[in-house]
């Protein structure tokens, strides 16, 4: 039976009563619901345990299919009926408290109030420990301290966005994700090697290219090691580790310690090697030839100069303690269909409904649209086009009638889609578009097609981050379609996929819709127990037999041609049918995965379940070699399925840091194609950034730049950036603060200079004088005395050399700046030359440079040195950035 909406009258009460009686009779003769009706004994430690003579705890038999909210309400009810502390339990609601439990010495919070109790991580944990009675604490909801509020404001400043602002969200996904990302962050911080993290050696596993090997004499190189004002040159093998180089240096200079200023009571283990003039360390168990700086020196024919110094203090990377309790990874995970189904259960004991019980078609009621100021579109009519997408695959589409475009247009009509609720996949989005066309001029023109134009759009994920089907009324503020001449038109294809709504509520178009409302939460199950579902077994065995049939020889050539087709070339319906028919054959060849997964009918529950089973059983993907291009294909906008995207990320886990940096720009963009804020890709980026300061540095600027320029994805990127900043350590936070302060100060100066010589390409001496005067004031009024250069974190810039700074003769009036090098060990007297630009989107430059670097790495593996010298470039905000001069 389909779950019935509250405002639907398709079933009469008599029919409902008959259905309930039928279920009760069926329940009496079957025990198949026993799993979902398990009774779990839990001892609840009360928040009033310390109040005088009150009992410390209550014991409760909890039904496995109760929600967390229901459990809390039952505890509260028992406390009230037992007349415990009426001044507390009758005054406050259950929401006043949170639920905590102990796991391996950590305090974990049961966070999702809609979660079915038997799917909680604590239940699995207690069962593993063979505990008959679990223990849960109820504690008053903690309020943030002044210190943590101040720290949050500091993080918001660095992020460039207030992640605590929930004024523009229609659910708790933002806060939910912030809490859930605490767990992977804590795991990463526990496993992090403090010394390795503080020095962050930049190494590669790739073999030394032939053209560099030819510059090495018999496998040995000369290294100049500096100590105070003295230096010593030693010959070392390219296969030596930094520790072996240090041991060799101390052996060869045993009689020169006084000259070199090395105390007698120290040895090689008390020191590390750093590149002269750069904050780049040679540390760890990798041979010298694997260090990128060594390779760069060999490539440029430069001497290798290193400085001997004590290692940096790992305590500088201390992380501020979290106020939050940990949220386990089971949070937000739905139960199986068998746990959630209403079939064969007493309706009085039902608190959630499985979506797969909902056999009726999905529908939406379009109430109307409203805009404060009507755009200049005279004699236009509008209609709403409502589509359901999964990735780029259209699952169903309907539209309203056309009406004259006014400040308020009302339809008040239901649109029923040709897709059943049970077939909606996770990640399915309802796309609502306001489309306009010209009013027919004459009666004869009514039948003619008029050219329509998309004016506004907005998306709503039909299944939320907790796997709950959306219900009830929504007022969604829509995004305006940019004109072709506008800058934002270049990113419109990605922007149109966002599930965020327009934060500009005052002037934006708003659409009001109504979704069916049910008596209970409707949940998308995480899986189906195939062994308990005869129909599913039959389908699977039949599909398996058909799918595993040997591919005939005459089709093998066609199959190979399909697999090797350009990824940008769309497949025909016949090609898709062939791939799906021989899906088991496809699963043996990882190259076919993007094409096969693009052929799945994501609007058919049976096909989705069959695909998931295929992915779970296949080992070909994990055992195949790393193909970054293949994995990246599965992370583009065509794939919204979490299992598919997780599989792609699993492949990327084997990437070394050097390659993560190489593809970081694309990986950050791919986050836009995730349906939800929390994803395997987001967690991958967070983990890798917390392991490497270099990756973390570039992730910070890539995210901050997107937050400043892309309103459509601000919240998602801000949540990821906050999660990183809470784990990167104090030293990195200080570095980011200095860079942000420098960027803001220079942006202010650039804009003032531009107003002085607007629309002029030439620059007068007066403008240069004004620039130097402004820089002088800046330098004396609290600019950071040194900072890491945003496009090259190994370089630290010091004071401005004001007399060498100028304004460049260009329309955007970029600043030509010269900085002293802040590192006293630098051997070159050349200043650090930087161009600061305001008015251009440097993300385009970054993309071209990235392509060149990838091409260079491909050529190098073939021992081809094309002598490329890519310049440093990074976007640090909305059309602002830094370039090397």
UniProtKB/TrEMBL annotation:
InterPro entries, per the entry: ARM-type_fold (IPR016024), C2_domain_sf (IPR035892), Kinase-like_dom_sf (IPR011009), PI3/4_kinase (IPR015433), PI3/4_kinase_cat_dom (IPR000403), PI3/4_kinase_CS (IPR018936), PI3K-type_C2_dom (IPR002420), PI3K_ABD (IPR003113)
Keyword field: ATP-binding, Kinase, Nucleotide-binding, Transferase
Domain of life: Eukaryota
GO biological process: cell migration; phosphatidylinositol 3-kinase/protein kinase B signal transduction; phosphatidylinositol-mediated signaling; regulation of locomotion
CDD domains for the chain: C2_PI3K_class_I_gamma (cd08399), PI3Ka_I (cd00872)
Record-annotated PIK helical domain positions: 545-727
Domain PI3K/PI4K catalytic: 801-885
Gene3D superfamilies the UniProt entry points to: 3.10.20.770, C2 domain, Phosphatidylinositol 3-kinase Catalytic Subunit, Chain A, domain 4, Phosphatidylinositol 3-kinase, accessory domain (PIK)
Domain PI3K-ABD: 36-142
Residue span, PI3K-RBD domain: 218-310
Transferase listed as a keyword: yes
GO molecular function, one term: ATP binding
Matches recorded under PROSITE patterns: C2_PI3K (PS51547), PI3_4_KINASE_1 (PS00915), PI3_4_KINASE_3 (PS50290), PI3K_ABD (PS51544), PI3K_RBD (PS51546), PIK_HELICAL (PS51545)
Pathway of action: Phospholipid metabolism; phosphatidylinositol phosphate biosynthesis
Annotated Gene Ontology cellular component terms: cytoplasm; phosphatidylinositol 3-kinase complex, class IA; phosphatidylinositol 3-kinase complex, class IB; plasma membrane
Catalytic activity: a 1,2-diacyl-sn-glycero-3-phospho-(1D-myo-inositol-4,5-bisphosphate) + ATP = a 1,2-diacyl-sn-glycero-3-phospho-(1D-myo-inositol-3,4,5-trisphosphate) + ADP + H(+)
Domain C2 PI3K-type: 358-521
Keyword Transit peptide found: no
Family, per entry: Belongs to the PI3/PI4-kinase family. Type III PI4K subfamily.
Protein name per Swiss-Prot or TrEMBL: Phosphatidylinositol-4,5-bisphosphate 3-kinase
Native source species: Anabas testudineus (Climbing perch)
